[in-house]
Amino acid sequence: MNSHPIVKPIVIALGVLVALFIVGKFLAPKDPPPAPEATPIAQASPGAAGAKASDADGPKAKLGPKAVTTASGLKYEDLKVGTGKEAKDGLSVEVHYTGWLTNGTKFDSSKDHGDSYKLTLPGQVITGWNEGIPGMKEGGTRKLVIPAALGYGDQGQGEIPPGATLVFEIELLKVN
Known about the structure:
Strands 1, 2, 3, 4, 5, 6 and 7 form a seven-stranded antiparallel beta sheet that branches. The protein is α+β, with helices and mostly antiparallel strands. Strand 3 (92-101) and strand 4 form a beta hairpin. It has helices spanning 7-27, 40-44, 53-56, 110-113, 127-132; strands at residues 68-69, 75-80, 92-101, 106-109, 117-120, 141-146, 166-175. It is rod-shaped, with a radius of gyration of 29 Å.
């Protein structure tokens, strides 16, 4: 019996495919790789659900080894410790501030307006400020890294996108 000349190569190719399939079954890993664990930033910033993990890691969000992280996820570092009166709830304070997104984009600065900013603690400002200014002393400068939940949350504000982590440098000029 004469078979068609193309049948023999097809049978060989099918045999090779079956052999590769069988070998692949025995050599393939039995369990899928584990899912990556959550980053410490995602765990430490409960309010940053709307922000991307990379958002909190931007260049402006970098803090030194003496930085403090609060239970709410606020991070701060005293760049200069003041020597005057201490800011406390119920007192009025006067500050200079500059605010950035974590990628370094400046969105506001009292210095650009040519005047300091006056407020009474707490209130009148975002939660991150209410938590981050008390404890400062006149003449001091503090860097705040504020998760979205302590800033403008998922709605954003003006140039600040929804879910943004904010970075502020606050200079405490006066406590009344």
